[in-house]
## 1
Amino acid sequence: MSKPKILVARAVFPEIIAALEQHFEVEANQVDTVWDKPQLIAHLQGKAGAFTTGSDRIDAEVLAACPDLRICADMAVGYNNFDIDAMSAAGVLATNAPDVLTETTADFGFALLMAASRRVTESEHYLRAGKWTKWSYDMFAGSDIHHSALGILGMGRIGQGIA
């Protein structure tokens, strides 16, 4: 029995493709070209599934041109590239990866908080421009974060991760 055909629409780690190849006949876009709609439709021909990103719009036109498609799995938290109504009408499953970047985004939020407080970017630019010639007690002193209270507006997944 032949394996179902799937499309990996953007570049992924090679070990992901190797794992998929155990179960599917995989066409992978490892050159990471962002396809326009006609190119995406061409690559989706005969495919039962697609591993997509936000750059791959799956709408009624794509679905009508790709009748073999049964599932699109988005490599993202969001799924605004999916026309959910059109996919439901065509019987095509839509999946995403909720919570996959919650802690990562919280880390970036905290990193930005630290960088702004300690003036990291500003001082790094000053240094690279060759302007630092001597130490000064008040140069880029910034503000301490330790022993400070942090106010978080919005205690969703990411706000809780920062906390």
## 2
Amino acid sequence: MKNAGMIALTGLGLCLAVLLAVPAVAQMASQHSHTQMHQTHQHDMARMPGLQGRDTTTDEVGDMAAMFRQFPSLSRQVTLLPNGIRTETSTADPALRDALLRHVIGMIDRVETGRDPKVRIQSPTLDIIFARRDRLQTQIDLTDTGVVVVQTSDDPELVAALQTHAAEVSDMAARGMHAVHEAMARRMRQ
């Protein structure tokens, strides 16, 4: 009988230990998954698989990769308007300027035609912009060093998405892929 009591107590203790450990194990697994995701992206800066999308071209991915690799060479200013945004992005590097222009013009064309690329690292703000593209007015002005884009709308939710997206792009221009990894980690926790 003494042994049976020990087994029951050991079994109960074991169950209790497992129940108490589950949250800690789940947290460790989540941290490991996040660390593994971060390390995978960090170590694959050559191919940048997160820039691939549903129908992105090699040239589009190449332009985005160039901007992420050379982000310290980009300068960006955003003005929040009551009904939208005004962004000015520039660089002294002519090749990077060409990549920037192709990207901006290409993405505006994609929005106007409803061809959401669904890039893996894409922000959810683009879902709103693509879904409400018929309520968006865009003006593009090329400069010697980059591009000025003004986007406006009478739709308050679209204006909010434009302003949030402009801040996200500014963060990427300031911090490169580090900003993307942090944003993706925040979305995974939500």
